[in-house]
Structure formats: C-alpha cells, structure tokens
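Page 37, continued from 36.
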C-alpha cells in the first residue's frame, strides 16, 4: 500500500485510459483518466467525465492547461473527491523547474494530491529534488520511446531522493514492470493497455507481493540495484560497489556498520548464528538461495515475506 498525499494506493499497477473509458479494464487496480485539456474545456466538463463514466476505480485525472485559474479549480475538485490530480507536461520540450515549483506550491495549497507527468529524459536529479521540496507527491516519468535506458533513469532519480516515482509506458510483460519497480519506481502505469493484460498483470503483481513481501525490492548493489539495496549488503570489509553506494548515500563505511547494527537491535534481524556475518541484518535478498539464512528464518518462525518486510523497513531507515 503506497501513500500518495491523502491516497492509499492498493496496487502498484495503474492504467491510463481516455475519459471515455474505452477499453478500460474492470479489474485493474486503478485507472487514471487522461486527455483533459483545460485550455479547451471547463472544469465542469472534467467533473462530468470523472463522475459520469461509471468507472469502478478512478484514481484520478491527468490534465494539461496553461492558465492557473482552471488548474486551481481542478485541484479543489480533486481534493474534494480524493482524486489524484496529474498535470500532464509531456507536450513540453523543456521544463522550467523554478516556474513548475511555483505551480506545484499553488496547487498543493488547494490540498490536492499532485502528480506531474513529464518525459523522463527532460528531468534530472536536482530538478526532481526541487519539485519534491515544493511538495510534489508523485513524479510520473513517461518513458515511451526510452525503453532501454528507463531503468537507469529511474534508479538515478530514486537515489537522488525524488518524490515517489510512477513510470508510464507501453510495457508488455511482467519482467518489464518488475525491472522498473526494482530500480526504485513505486508504481507502473500502463498506457492504454489491452484490458486482459492489465488485469493479468495486476493479479500477478499482487500475488508476487504476497509471496515476496516487498514488491519493489531492489537488486543487490553489486547487481546494479539502487541505494535501497544497502539493506542486503554485507559489512564493507573488501573493495566492492558498496563503497561507491555509501559515498552516494553520504555515509562512511563505519557509519554504515553502526547504523545497520543499531537499526537491527531489538528486531529479528539482530539474530543470525550460522550466517556469514552472524546477523540477518547483513544477509542477502530472499531470491538468492541460502540454506544458512533460511535455517535461521525457520528457527525463528519468520516467513520469507516477513524477512523482506523487515529489510524494507531497514532500507527506509538507512536512507532517511
Ligand atoms: S557489500 Fe556484498 S552485497 Fe553489497 S555490493 Fe558488496 S558484495 Fe555486493
Ligand atoms: S548467510 Fe547466506 S544470505 Fe546471509 S550473507 Fe551469507 S550468503 Fe548471504
């Protein structure tokens, strides 16, 4: 469950569909209605489309517009109806971050949960951080046409402490969605997908979450994971990629060791006789087979998903 402003988002899979709702999945976790241009239509028309379509799970709406008046009116409507308001900037060829930060602040003053949808190649780490500081709740990266490099872009922005990330594109299989989530995205949004595929992916992802406990768990740092992967790192006793990751995270190796030990104290991760480093806090991701770690989990009656949930909390605390 992801918190975005006042929203509790149940599924990591979102679907965009036009306001007419054509082809919308009936089972998909949540739907973002898109295609509203507030330069050409009124906010009442937007309201009519959101209220009148009979869509079962509308997460919110995605709109574009250059005038502040209608945007602020739409923000009030979003707040009153607990919708996500998304400002769609994918039509822009560059982003003026200072101006956008002012727009974000003004919309946030109306109380709306706010997402900005931008072309992923137009935003950098300082820009994402500035928007996050202005109050942005969700950064929606549109990666259409950028498939090969999008996971690296997500990792970079996630490591730079941006707002939670949603990635929007035309993804055709479970692996593509999982790859983006494992690089630090919190949500994946399918652009006008085949409804059957969207339903299948939503179900597969919730089954995966039940099994693994941390649906967007990172890879190990040495396998290219983002900074959350520090939760799976061993003590930094040899030269390996953990040193670069610690530098990025602003921690010395000594601080890392103490912080991990302190955070493990009083939790099941403190224990781990028979594991490589004597404590589960240094142990690998559950997907890496290890009979030593699994024996400890079994002796403590900890499920795999309990273990991964503890690692998720550890990652959150480590990177605070
Ligand atoms: S500390 Fe261990 S898990 Fe982390 S990067 Fe180094 S070898 Fe990989
Ligand atoms: S005991 Fe297994 S899981 Fe733990 S650090 Fe060693 S190899 Fe990794």
């Amino acid at each position: 469950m992801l918190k975005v402003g006042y929203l509790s988002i149940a599924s990591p899979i979102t679907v965009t569909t036009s306001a007419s709702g054509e082809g919308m999945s009936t089972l998909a976790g949540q739907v973002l209605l898109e295609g509203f241009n507030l330069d050409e239509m009124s906010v009442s028309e937007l309201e009519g489309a959101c209220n009148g379509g009979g869509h079962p799970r509308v997460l919110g709406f995605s709109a574009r517009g250059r005038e502040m008046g209608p945007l602020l009116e739409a923000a009030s409507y979003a707040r009153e109806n607990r919708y996500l308001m998304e400002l769609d900037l994918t039509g822009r060829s560059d982003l003026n971050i200072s101006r956008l930060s002012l727009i974000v602040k003004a919309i946030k003053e109306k109380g709306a949960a706010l997402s900005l949808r931008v072309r992923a190649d137009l935003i950098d780490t300082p820009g994402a951080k500035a928007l996050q500081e202005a109050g942005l709740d969700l950064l929606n990266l549109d990666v259409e046409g950028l498939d090969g490099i999008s996971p690296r872009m997500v990792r970079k922005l996630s490591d730079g402490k941006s707002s939670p990330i949603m990635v929007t594109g035309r993804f055709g299989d479970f692996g593509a969605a999982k790859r983006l989530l494992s690089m630090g995205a919190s949500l994946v949004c399918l652009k006008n997908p085949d409804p059957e595929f969207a339903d299948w992916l939503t179900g597969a992802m919730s089954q995966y979450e039940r099994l693994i406990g941390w649906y967007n768990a990172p890879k190990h740092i040495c396998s290219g994971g983002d900074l959350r992967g520090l939760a799976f790192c061993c003590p930094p006793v040899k030269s390996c990629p953990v040193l670069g990751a610690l530098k990025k995270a602003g921690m010395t190796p000594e601080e890392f060791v103490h912080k991990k030990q302190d955070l493990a104290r009083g939790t099941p991760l403190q224990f781990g006789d028979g594991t490589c480093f004597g404590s589960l806090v240094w142990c690998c991701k559950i997907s890496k087979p290890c009979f030593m770690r699994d024996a400890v989990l079994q002796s403590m009656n900890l499920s795999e998903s309990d273990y991964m949930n503890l690692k998720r909390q550890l990652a959150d605390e480590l990177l605070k």
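Residues 247 and 253 are 9 Å apart (CA to CA). Flag for discussion at group meeting. The mean pLDDT is 91.
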